[in-house]
Amino acid sequence: MVRKNGPHPVVLNCRVLIVGIMLCFVAASIVGCVTTGQVEEIVAKSNESMLPGASLPGAETAGPLAGRWQEDAARIDAFIAAHPGREVLASALRVRQAMLFLGYEQYNLANASFEMVNPQHLYTARDRALYELRGHLIWWFRQARAPFSGDDFQRGSEALLALQKRIDFLEDSPDTRDYLAEMRAYIALQMARRHPNLSERTRYFGEGMNQYAKIFTREDLALLLGHQRDQKELLKNRRQIRALAVIKTANGLIKETPEILNVVNNADFRTLLK
Predict the structure, then answer these.
(1) How many CB atoms sit inside 10 A of residue 237's CB?
(2) Phi/psi of residue 114, nearest 5 degrees
(3) Is 87 helix (H, G, I), strand (E, B) or coil?
(4) What residue ranges do the domains of the chain occupy?
(5) 138-139-145-146 Cα dihedral, nearest 10 degrees
(6) Concatenated DSSP letters for 143-206?
(7) Which one of 87, 161, 201, 248 has the largest count of C-beta atoms within 10 Å of its C-beta?
(8) 3-state secondary structure of 120
(9) Coil, helix or strand for 4?
(10) What confidence tens digit (pLDDT) does each residue in 136-178 have?
């Protein structure tokens, strides 16, 4: 889907860039009347609302998803109310609820859900990262539905720094790392596309693509290059598949300003962007 956001089109594909990160709970939070089956059911239902088999909305924020989000958000509220004192469980579900709201452009509700989280009771790297980055997430999801303003360059620069800081400590949680790395790449590409100054445009592009390239192994890059030469070459994981949409978005910017490709350091990734 191509959507206008300011003077330039932005290529967005929400259906491609979805991370299948299932919400995890420590064993201590699933005791007594809270059964594993109950937790799995509520997680599955909220997954269905965001997209089949997925637990996070697309990193590039392509607009509202289709589903019965009110019902699933209410189910989370009712579940938490029925199990008072389960702080670990409640905090994890509130993070999930906040991301559900973001997928449906309910920014105030998303912020309210994040505010109900007790960060001391977040135990997964995924939930801690999303909670810590909540302000940047809300800004980015909202920004994609409005013209890019001068203030957004400052907010975007702050988001790039905060996201990279968190990404650097997520080696043991690759799905979450990849999700945030994709989001960071899209923010950088958006800033590069919107900035009127060529040197700044080039800087944002290089910053985004060079950091994004670091999440790929040699095998990832080899398979992506093989797929680029012959689409019968099958990709093997979500990281590789989702990269195709990021590359496509970057290609659009390169066509407008070919010289920015020179700032990409990784030779294989630079070839993918040509």
Answers:
(1) 14
(2) -60, -35
(3) helix
(4) 27-132, 149-273
(5) 150
(6) HTTS---HHHHHHHHHHHHHHHHHHTT-TT-HHHHHHHHHHHHHHHHHHHHH-S-HHHHHHHHH
(7) 201
(8) helix
(9) strand
(10) 999 999 987 677 787 899 999 999 999 999 999 998 889 999 9
